[in-house]
Amino acid sequence: MSRFVMPSSGIRPRSVLLWTAVALVGAVGWGVLALSRGERVSAIWLLLAALGSYLIAYRFYSRFIARRVLKVDDRRATPAERLEDGVDYQPTDRRILLGHHFAAIAGAGPLVGPVLAAQMGFLPGTIWIVAGVIFAGAVQDMVVLFLSLRRDGKSLGQMARDEIGKVGGAAALLAVFAIMIILLAVLALVVVNALAHSPWGTFSVVMTIPIALVMGCYLRFLRPGRVLEASVLGVVLLLLAIAGGGWVEHSALAAAFTWSPTTLVLGLAGYGFVASVLPVWALLAPRDYLSTFMKIGTIALLAVGVLVVGPVLQSGAVTRFASSGTGPVFAGTLFPFLFITIACGALSGFHALVSSGTTPKLIQKESQVRMIGYGAMLMESFVAIMALIAACALDPGLYYAMNAPAGLLGSTAGSAARAVTDLGFAITPDQLSAAADAVGEHSLVARTGGAPTLAVGMSEILSGLFGSASAKAFWYHFAIMFEALFILTTVDAGTRVGRFMLQDMLGNVWKPIGRVTWKPGIWLTSALVVAAWGYFLYVGATDPLGGINQLFPLFGIANQLLAVIALAVTTTVLVKSGRLRWAWVTGIPLAWTVAVTFTASLEKIFSSNPQIGFFAQHARYDAALGSGRILPPAKSAADMHAVLTNSIVDGVLVSVFLLLVVIVVANAAVVCVRSVRSRRTPPSSEAPYVESLIDVGEPALTGGRK
Amino acid sequence: MRIRAAVARALHLVRWYVGELTGDAEFARHCARLRQLHPDQPVPTRRAYELARSRRRDHRPIDRCC
Q1: Which of A148, A212, A323, A417 could form a disulfide with A287 if both were Cys (CB 3.0 to 4.6 A apart)?
Q2: Interface pTM (ipTM) of the complex?
Q3: Which of A224, A350, A359 sits opposite B46 (nearest CB)?
Q4: Do B17 and A227 touch (CB under 8 A)?
């Protein structure tokens, strides 16, 4: 092993002063948040606490991990340099790669989870988002990226197979596929809930399809490769579509775009199938460009809005639902359910797939894993913080009227206001109607899923930023469009990834289906993937108990279980490569995530509380049906049967996820114990050392002390 | 003059960043690489290059997270 040298050892007074100031600013932010009880707290304190913590973590903790734990070596050529082919492998400027990686990891997850978690107050969510990203989420992304980088860009599944063994590897592959199906279904459900019975929203989101096709044709036939020109054209058309939606809502066309949840489910499934089988240039690539532009632009706009407007947090620091577990948005106490509700933004297992996908094949220098892996995840965490602010700045009465399930709220402003008052919050039917009018919607009652709530919060902030309350309706639909665009891009890309995975798996059984150019194989596997997530989407959209209420915990558990797999692989590699003393860096987040996900899964399976346990829920509705009773919110025997089927399917699914992850973790533990006992470092699975010839014009970072 | 130069530099930086991020600059880089490594081979037209690029993307998943 090469001997590592610290590039500089002197401590500069200016640097000490700067970082002391950053630490003080962050500490003051946390102090204000911690000590405020009942006062009106400005969101600026929350921002300062988060930003101060991010800067300190990036400067010190990520550097420690890079130098001491991973021992990055910039003298070692990366796969991008060694295997450069100008296609898959090519050294890419780190600032560009940071943009690509951020666009790849940040979707709707960090926007939706924090909005739902606002039911427990702003403090628990803030602490988890900030501490989670610093000690778990960003660490996972950075370490997976580094390990994949040292293995020529191998995927998480391949690394699991190589490092843990065949059984663990196969379980990991199956788990990844099953987990992805649930992720796609729940994200699509967020879109369905945001667009149901909303002609304005539906029209503007539907218009993104012809807009993407126009962009695709522009890039294919008129001006090949001019992505910037096509994206500017797309953004202009998109803004016109949002403005046009306002006109459609008040025209004779409104009825044609007023869709029920079931119609939206069918539309989304059909769209997902077509997007998966069409060539990438037609729909997927242009939508992806559009989504990336909107993502970066809108997040920057929201950050400026929060800083300038400085909204006041109205939700309270910690609500009673944190300890009672009886919250209407999702059931269960703070531990473990807050930590699965907020996944993306704090810790997202799905990122491990991106970190072991394209990004490691493009990195110029090993030390850049710090900026790209750790830094991009901090940026996503900042997005989650802004979503939390937007939700907590809303009047709590309005928040619960939007996020409690329809079964509890009823369908009118009057019934919703009564239900919210029963929960202990105040809102009148007139206030609810006025809030809906202000954003150009017929009703905001039971608009669950997080997207409409975030859109209302964003419309408050952005109309405040531009000083025009009358523009609220535009900004609301702008935000809905922005979230739907994210989600539909993930649905497109996810269905395609799922199709490739299924082709890969089924190809082992029957060779032709594994060929990526064989059309019947493409159609069949695409249809299977769409049918799988489409089923859960349909179930969620028609669930009498509220689809988000039932399925979002599954989404969180699934995503965090994927993080368990990623952290188990990284910890195993650290132990096997003779870095047992540093294994706590991924081992502690692994232990925490195992505690959270296993507790949540076991509660979902075995809890005797029908609000939480799927099988207890099944038993309750089964007994009622047996004695001829209809239990609200079910309204008919058909509703009762739907609850029975859904609770069994959800319960079995959580059990299967848990079983697969237990296999991976147990297998990893056996490998680690064997490795420690043998006292010999097994042969390295890293690619051989080749000296780098690339000079990036910076002092080489060459690992840490031995 | 100094402000003008700074603005010009910033604009250049933004243009470069957006061009790289969108992949607009990929064709120029590909041609430069081809001329350097295989000077005997013809440089493709932009249309041909972009067609080949999108065909490659068809057989490769796109990383997009939740």
Answers
A1: A212
A2: 0.90
A3: A224
A4: no
